[in-house]
């Protein structure tokens, strides 16, 4: 039974901008608050809707990077953040079913090198490090053209993905979409996850790494895992993966919300989806 519904946060790639047009954002590297409120221009709301995200309640917010700096972005559907660059470059497509990926994927037949960050306040806890190892094991167990290595340390520059903690008392995490054939580099795990089991942490980390490989939320169209119903997200901007079912899939690791009783493992349709893509 689903309890303690919590948001999984999705960040987007391409967060640096050179101009300040009405529908763009500027980087602010040393701000202390994670979220800010700001009116989103109508032109941006239209782009959000065209990409199959629900524009209702969209706002401007910020995500934290491993060095403690912040970058501004758009927050949509309460738990997904998208950059202006991504909004400008993602293309809509008519689809109706699931599971779903973004238009951005990682180049196949390669090794993805992952580092768990161990420096200062951004360091993973012992529980989070164990959960990260389990999450990497999940991906290496798939029959796909990607393999994953894992190490722990502070020199994250050479690595494809860095997984780190943000001390904010919240539960969930932030990750992003691939860019130029590479996975999104930064996977942020919130400090409130220390209140949950290793398996639930494994679930969240596996979920966020899924986003770095191009996966969207399985139930983006209804957010049923969050206890929501009614208005669907629309019919543009997410790509259905053949071989996965229609309707709500309670077993998917890519659901928008999670419970405190997750086992951290892929559902069978998650496996089908990843093995189809890679």
- The low-pLDDT segments are 1-5, 9-37, 94-98, 230-237
Our estimate of the beta-strand percent is: 15-25%
Number of helices in the DSSP assignment: 5
What is the C-alpha radius of gyration, as a whole number of Å? 17 Å
Q: Mean pLDDT, rounded to whole units? A: 76
Describe this structure in words.
The protein has 278 residues and is α/β, with parallel strands linked by helices. The strands form 4 sheets. The chain has a 5-stranded mixed sheet, covered by helices on one side. Strand 2 and strand 3 form a beta hairpin. The longest helix has 15 residues.
Topology:
Elements lengths: L5 E2 L34 H9 L8 E6 L5 E7 L3 E3 L1 H6 L10 E2 L8 E8 L8 H15 L5 E8 L7 E6 L6 E2 L11 E5 L7 H15 L26 E2 L16 E2 L9 H10 L1
Parallel strand pairs: 6-7, 6-8, 8-10
Antiparallel strand pairs: 1-12, 2-3, 3-4, 5-11, 9-10
Describe the structure using short key phrases.
278 residues, alpha/beta, five-stranded mixed sheet, 5 helices, 20% helix, 19% strand
Question: In summary, what is this structure?
Answer:
The chain is of the alpha/beta class and 278 residues long. It is 20% helix and 19% strand. Helix 3 packs across helix 4 (198-212).
